[in-house]
Specification:
The structure is a homodimer. By secondary structure, the first copy, chain A, is of the alpha/beta class. Chain A folds into 3 domains: about 1-60, Glutaredoxin; about 65-175 and about 300-365, FAD/NAD(P)-binding domain (3-Layer(bba) Sandwich), CATH 3.50.50; about 185-295, 3-Layer(bba) Sandwich (FAD/NAD(P)-binding domain), CATH 3.50.50.60. In chain A, about 25% of the residues lie in helices and about 25% in strands. Chain A has 10 helices and 19 strands. In chain A, helix 4 runs parallel beside helix 10 and helix 8 packs parallel to helix 9. Chains A and B meet through helix 4, helix 5, helix 8, helix 9 and helix 10 of A and helix 4, helix 5, helix 8, helix 9 and helix 10 of B.
């Protein structure tokens, strides 16, 4: 990668194979104080490893007027994977994101990412980030405010005021869950309050849980959890909006209690959630001891910045085909911001790879 | 998982929390000779861990007349991931495959599976398999010969003669690459002979390579490799079939030599490939020293068994939408057998997860 970087930026260099040259190997260890390759010397400076940031500072050609091959919005599982695939194809790549890891950071016990029997979201995202850091990718922590088309390129303006141009875009800015709007909500997230029954459901075997929501997702989760947990309280803010098929299934389950016209008014517990208070429309309150609450009150895709530029579905998700193409040539998307129904880390990663390889093909044809 | 298995099969049991009961913990260590949970005692037998195979033998209800919730054809990255997702949703799941790992086993240095900076295909597939083995999934090593629809279920007949029925199918039986048809081809695969430039391309920095094929894929690979390798020989059996855009791009590359009406007649080398002999239509032979050969002579999806049952594209790939649904309700597909253009482990895994979650939703609605 170091050689490829230098070649690409037209920097002449001498390459020494320390595997074959014992004397040079000795000298490298003395110079760098360690044994790993590559070691690059520039004038009096010794750079250990493929430090793409430092090499870019010294030799990079990324001025403000430059046009990147591809700009990736978001650095969750989809964006980071897309970045790795783009950089391996030697595309001049920039990622702009508010954080590194996205919503995956909120998962504290991932059992369904293939390759790891159990890993925290934070650890997994660190591994993703490390893979990105070994490649020549510019990663900017910034919030994208607007995306516009300018003839042959796309112009992305961030909160910091900078505008960056690229020949192709990969949109992976994810979604955010609707909030209950009660005190301590953030504190209990991942500590009894869950936003993903597919991820956390099996952890509640033999425990008491509540599910919040009145749509298909809430009913499905309640039915699913009724087979795992001892009891399920389904808390519906107003009236039931789920399909009749789910309502009938729910009625067959003996351990589900339905609370209509009811809201959670407070969350209880110390480190972990241990109970909730619910209040119905007539103001009557009830305290419930339980071990987990699953929120199924909806997700809001972070697609506002591209509304009007690419086609969105009725949920405001970006519509993609099975290869990650949007309706606009040059714009691709992956992960939770798209209309792909299941929102999972491995799905976002796979679709991020698809989008990157499609970008490569798109740019080759241009 | 053990408790869930026993519950599902109606087996009464007593659960002892050895975290809370010191005396019971001591007894468990004595009985099992180790400290891991769960430990299950059945009469005089002691089962360590969630040994789904033994538990199935003792308590399973999987007779020949049983109907599975879902049958997965294939156990590559897509099939194994689908299996994990199905089992976590408590679906009664069976996987039928000729091998475990699929084509991923042929990759000897994977650098683009997120979560691992570098891993062999064999090691990665072992990790996938381990995740499957911790869950309640039946895994049969057998070759699927035919798939038929029988009113409400699908009947899958294997080479061994057994027919297995399931309410839903996930097709992940992959594809196989067309062969050159020369001696030692199998021996050099992964040792200089590559079937994936996206995977192996970066390993040939500064080396001499050949690309075999006359279509878009071959031309793309030659152009890509010309930026990485010092020289590229593009070997086209008959005439060029690639789009003009690629032909023009190729002509711009100074380090690509085009050999039309030419075939590889032999491969040379000891452990690793070190050269080839090519022969043109007039019988003239030429020996070339080189480090790598990329085959881009096409892929053949393993879809014969479902031809006529589900819609295939012109390449005989199974057509899926962005959620892994085929045109037949109850049949889903993922991985290299589908029309998804990029064939990668992380993509197959992600799409396997999609298919599994769609099966779950489909069965819930039934």
């Amino acid at each position: 990668m170091a050689k490829a970087f230098l070649d690409k930026n037209g920097v002449p260099y001498e390459s020494i194979d320390v595997g074959a040259d014992q004397e040079a190997a000795q000298k490298m260890v003395e110079l760098s104080g360690q044994r790993g390759v590559p070691v690059i010397t520039v004038d009096d400076e010794v750079i250990v490893g493929f430090d793409s940031q430092r090499l870019n500072e010294l030799f990079g050609k990324t001025g403000a007027t430059d046009i990147f091959d591809v700009l990736i919005v978001g650095a969750g599982p989809a964006g980071l994977t897309a970045g790795v695939y783009c950089a391996r194809k030697m595309l001049n790549t920039i990622i702009i994101s508010e954080n590194i890891g996205g919503l995956a950071l909120e998962s504290w016990a991932i059992e369904n990412y293939m390759g790891y029997r159990m890993i925290t979201g934070e650890d997994l995202m660190k591994k993703f980030e490390e893979q990105v850091r070994t490649l020549n990718i510019r990663l900017e922590l910034d919030r994208v405010e607007s995306v516009a088309r300018e003839e042959e390129v796309f112009a992305v303006t961030a909160a910091s005021g900078t505008t960056i141009r690229a020949r192709a875009l990969i949109l992976t800015q994810g979604n955010h869950h609707r909030k209950l709007g009660v005190a301590n909500e953030e504190q209990f997230l991942g500590r009894g309050l869950s936003i993903c029954s597919t991820c956390d459901g099996p952890l509640y075997k033999g425990k008491r849980v509540a599910v919040v929501g009145g749509g298909n997702a809430a009913f499905q989760t309640a039915i699913e959890m009724s087979k795992i947990a001892t009891s399920v309280s389904l808390i519906v803010r107003s009236t039931v909006k789920a399909d009749p098929v789910y309502v009938r299934k729910l009625e067959e389950m003996k351990n589900i209690t339905l609370h209509k016209n009811t809201q959670i008014s407070s969350l209880h517990g110390n480190k972990f959630l241990s109970g909730i208070t619910i209040r119905n429309d007539s103001g009557k309150e009830q305290v419930m001891d339980l071990d987990g609450v699953f929120l199924e009150i909806g997700w809001l895709p972070n697609s506002g910045m591209v509304d009007g530029l690419v086609a969105l579905n009725e949920k405001k998700e970006i519509i993609v085909d099975c290869d990650g193409r949007t309706n606009v040539p040059g714009i691709f998307a992956a992960g939770d911001v798209t209309n792909v129904r299941s929102k999972q880390i491995i799905i976002a990663a796979g679709d991020g790879a698809k989008a990157a390889l499609e970008v490569y093909e798109y740019l080759m044809k241009e």
